[in-house]
Design a protein that fits this description.
Strand order of the largest sheet: 1-2-3-4-5-6-7
Number of helices: 3
Oligomer: single chain
Radius of gyration: 16 Å
Shape: globular
Helix content: 10-25%
Number of strands: 16
Strand content: 25-35%
Distance between the termini: 7 Å
């Protein structure tokens, strides 16, 4: 399944960490971390978690831009977004912004036990990658970005839909993602960071099975029809 629904929202998997969220009643369209997306109609907001190519794909961003599109990204993305700066809002860790249609704020996203070298994790906290919490009316989304299971997740409250990485390469392992889900306690969790570059839908199904009877899990696969 590529497209699912939650309350008044349609959620489309774009692959890897990319998702399109649409609310027809509000005429609002949001995208998280688009990567190698097909041609799509313009969206209202593009949220970018950090500067790596599989999260900040300028070709995909161009496909999603309209004259009023707002791109939200942390400062580590500034140079990669230089061609779009008149439409970019640069945010820092734990920034909170009130827009006309929504409120959003950032959550740290970093590694604690996934190492590039024996002494350096892949995603350091100092680089400044983020996850996003986006509040739209009664629905609160949390897109974790590239992160491990971190203490800041215990501070998240009233999450409706959580998008969590599960592959274990540069991000949480599947079992760590289960722990994170139990701490965050969303109404719905959607696994990500698998299928397009690494990991497989089999991992996502296992994640779903591990959380059976605990939390609703929706497996959205961008390669599905």
């Amino acid at each position: 399944m590529r497209v699912g629904s939650f309350e008044d929202w349609q959620i489309t998997a774009l692959g890897h960490d990319g998702f399109l969220l649409e609310n027809l009643g509000l005429k609002l369209r949001l995208v998280f971390d688009p990567f190698e997306v097909p041609e799509l109609d313009p969206v209202d907001y593009v949220f970018i978690s950090h500067h790596h190519y599989d999260h900040l794909d300028t070709n995909s961003i161009r496909k999603l831009l309209g004259p009023k599109t707002i791109i939200v990204a942390p400062k580590c993305c500034r140079s990669e977004l230089k061609d779009f700066l008149d439409q970019v809002q640069i945010v820092e860790d734990r920034d909170k912004h009130q827009e006309k249609e929504l409120t959003y704020w950032t959550v740290p996203a970093y590694n604690v036990n996934k190492f590039r070298t024996p002494n350096e994790v892949f995603h350091t906290k100092e680089v400044g990658g983020v996850g996003f919490v986006v509040d739209v009316g009664k629905t609160r989304f949390y897109h974790a970005g590239d992160t491990d299971f971190i203490p800041e997740m215990a501070e998240l409250k009233k999450i409706s839909v959580a998008f969590l990485p599960i592959s274990g390469t540069f991000v949480m392992t599947l079992d760590e993602a289960v722990q994170a889900t139990e701490v965050i306690n969303p109404k719905l969790v959607i696994p990500m960071h698998y299928g397009k570059i690494l990991g497989s839908v089999t991992d996502a199904i296992r994640f779903q099975n591990l959380l059976r009877d605990k939390v609703l899990v929706m497996v959205l696969n961008a390669s599905a029809g």
